[in-house]
Amino acid sequence: MSSLLSICRAALKMRLLERLWCHPIMLLRDFETSDEAAIGCVALAAFKQFESHYADWPAMASNVSRMADLAKKSELIIAVRNGEVVGGVAYVGPNKQKAAYFNQAWPIIRMLVVSPSHRAGGIGKMLTEACLERARRDHSPIIALHTSPIMSVALPMYIRMGFEKFRDAPDIHGVPYAVYTKSL
What we know:
184 residues; alpha+beta; eight-stranded mixed sheet; 8 strands; disordered N terminus
């Protein structure tokens, strides 16, 4: 704990706050290539509970486990607790390439994941708020994401944070999804 606080203090002194966000028990930071395996495992573990919902779970699992690939086209934010990667999310900025069902001018939140053993501690909300801050940094009036009713924790969290359903999106391996937006 004291080493994490030391990192936070050093980050503040060095004005690294734009790259690091510190919480007494949590560190949010930008993805590093050394995080690739860990974030892939976290993503797979986070989606595993939905295995029976996807018509082609092996294809879905393969995609999810390659979450680090999102760092090539987005800002991948990693949540670390006690030196362990416990979550992540991708922020895709405005006018960056994204699925056709999104307005290309909007920034979007992609693939929010939290390790099942670290849920209910506010990590998902912190990661979402980090994306909202980046959207504000980019002077965006709106941010979007897509999620599914099977995401019984994430969807209510997004709604509590002010996201509203915009329209349906294409199913993913037989699972219904919808686009949600939030005005900033």
